[in-house]
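Pasting as-is:
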Amino acid sequence: MAGLSKSSSVFASQDPIAKMIQNPSENLVGFVVRTGYDEFTVLTNDYFREKIGGVPMNSFLLAASFDPAKYDEARDVDKEVLLLRVTDSAALPQDDAKLSSMVEHHQGHVQAQRLDIRDGLEDITQSQLQFSGLKCNVLGTFYVDHRAHLELGSDIEDFQSVSQLRVYKPTTEVLQEIVNFVSHDRQEKALADAAKSGFHGQPHPIRVGHVRYSSTRRLQVQHKYNTAEVLIHPLDFLSRRTGVFGMTRTGKSNTVKTMVAAVFESGIRNHMKIGQLIFDPNGEYANANGQDDSSSIAEVFSDNTVRYRGRVTKGFYDLRDNFYRSLINGLQTIQDGLQQQGNLSQDLHSFFGMTLEEPNSKDVSKTNRYQKSVAIYKALLYASNLQPSKIDDIVMFPMGEKVLSQVYQHSETLQEKEQEAGESHSSQAARAGRMRSVFGIPESGITLRKARELFSYVREANIALSSGAGVGIESSTKNKPWLEPHDIAMLNLIAGKNTDGRRIRATGTINAIARDYHAPNGSDNIAADIFAHLREGRIVIVDLSVGIPSVRIDRANQIAQYVFTECQRLFNENPAQPPRIVMYIEEAHNLISKDAEPNDTWPRIAKEGAKAGIALVYATQEPSAISSNVLANTENMFVTHLNNDDELRTIAKYYDFKDFTPSIKKAQDVGFARMKTLSTPFVVPVQIERFSPEALKKHFATLGRFPGFTSVPEVPEIVEEEWAPEPEEGEED
C-alpha cells in the first residue's frame, strides 16, 4: 500500500497526506488545546459531534495544521497528519463553572418535562456548556518520505504547537486505509520473506472483519463506519506466534476458524501447500455444533480435512496406535506406565530396559534376533488381551531346525502330549518337522495364538536346558543361547511366572497400561501420517474431546513433538524452503503454562518453532497462566472479552492494549476483538467476521484449489471385529 486510494473529494494537491483529510468542514471534531509527545487534549462540542456521528471510545482521529484546500501553500513543517486514539474525556479549565451553572439550572426546575431543545437554557449558556474535552493518545505520524512513499512513524518527531492543530474524523474510506496500512519498508521485507517462503509475488491479504469501536453501534452503522474492512496479511501468521484471548463464548473459536479459512484461502491464491494442525480439546472444529450454523471446519473444507479421534467413529481415523505395528511407540507407552508404577519384578524390570529398534538389514544375525524378539513381544501383547487386527494376527520369525528340535525334546508338557498321541521322533529333522506340522512354519507366518502356545513350550524347554551350567536353548552357533535375557523375561510375563515358578504381575498389568492407548485399526505411526497430510497442505483436526485425559495429552504431545522434530530436520536440510505449517492449540494454558519446563514440547515449539516454519496460534481464557516468555514473543494478539482484572493487567503490558482494558472488561459481544498484528503498529478494534459455512463453501467453490492439490483419501469404514482371546491358564497375584 503506497498511498491512499482515489477519493471523490477535490483536492488542491494529489499528495497522499492531503488526501487523508477528506471533507474537512463536515468531519471536523475540534481543536487541539493541549499537546505532549504521547497525549493530546482536544476541544470539541455537541454540534461537531452531531455532524460526524459521535466520537466513540477508542476511535481513530486525525490531527493536522494545514488547510486541506490549500495544501500546496502549507509550510513543509506542517505537511504531516497525526494519528490519535480517543481514550477518555478530558477536564477543561471552565468545567467547575459549567458544573455550577448546571446545578443552578436544574435546581430551578419544578417539572420533569423538557421545556425545549435547550431545556430552558439561554443561548450563551448553552453555547458554553456544549464544549467538552477529549483525551487522545498519539499513535504516530503519517508523512511522505524522500521516496514519495506514504509512511507511518510510531511517534511524533517534534513538539506540536496548539495554535493551528485541528482534529478530524476519518471517512470510512480513509479509516480502512489507516487500519490496514503497511509501510513501504515493511512491504519490501514482506515481499522478500514471501519469496523465501515460496510465494509468487505479494501474498493476497484476507478480510477478517470490519472496524468496530464500541458495543453500542447505532451511530457507527448509520454513518457506515462499520463498512471499513480489516484485513490480515498471511505472512503475519506464517512462522509467527498468535495469541487469541477471551472468555468462553465470546468468539475465540470463531476467530480461530476465521484464521483457518484465511490461511487456506492464502494457500489457494498463492498456489502453496500450507498444512494446518488443530488440537481440538472440545471437538468443536471436527464436529458440527450449534455455534456455526450446525457446521464445522471439516464440513466446509471436506475435501481437504482429515480428522483423528481416540475412539472408533465414522469418518475419523483412530488416534490410538496399533501396538502390533507401532512397536517403538507402543513399547514406550507400556514402559512409561511401568515406570510410574515402580516396584517392578526382575522380569518386568528386564522388559522395561529392552528396545525394539530395528537393526541394519545387512546384519543377518541381528535381524534374526530382532524378528524373534518382536514375535515374542507380539505374543505378549496377545496374551495381555490387546486385540490384533486380522492382518496383525500373523507373526513371522526365524526358528531353525536345531532350535525346534530342542524345544520338542525338552518341553516336558509337549512330550506328554506327544506320548499320548503316540508320536516319537529320533532325528533332529524329524523332530523339527513334527513341530512345524503342529504349530506351522514360523518363517512363513503363524497365528498369534499358535505363537503364544509355541513360546510356552520354548520357555519350558529353556528352563530345563538352563539348569546347571547350561546356556538354555542353543542357537545354530554352538554354545550360544538362542534367547536373550529380555526374551526370557517376556516369556515369563506371558506365563505369569518367573523362572522359579512363582507368580508375578504380568499380562494384567500390561493390559491395564496399554488398553486405552491401543486400537487394532490404528496406524503404525500416526504422527508420521499426520505430518504427511500437513505437507500436502491439508487441515488435520485432532479431536481430543473423548478418551482418557492422560491418553489425549500424551498423544497430543507425541504428535506435536514429531511435527516439530521433522520440521527442524527439513529446515536444516534446506533452510531456504522450510515447511509451511500452522499449529492451533485450544485451552493453551494447559500446555504452555508458566509451570511448563523450557525444554518441554510446547514451550519449545512456541519459542523455536518459527525458525523451523511452524506458526503457532494458541487460544486461552487465561493469558496470565501462559509462559511469560511465550507472551513476550507473540507477534499477533486477538483479545475479546475478559472479566478478570488479573488477566486484563497481563494484556495491558503488551503493545497499546492498555487503552482498551475498560472496553474489554465491559463489552461481552461475540466476536468483538482488539487486534494487533505484525504489520500494524497499533491495536485495531474489529468485529471478526462470523464463520459462515454456507457462504464460505460458495466462496471457496469459486476459487478452485492450488496446483498439485489432491483430495484427502476416504476414511475406510471400520468394522469392529468380535474377538475373544484365549483364556489365560492361571490368575496372577
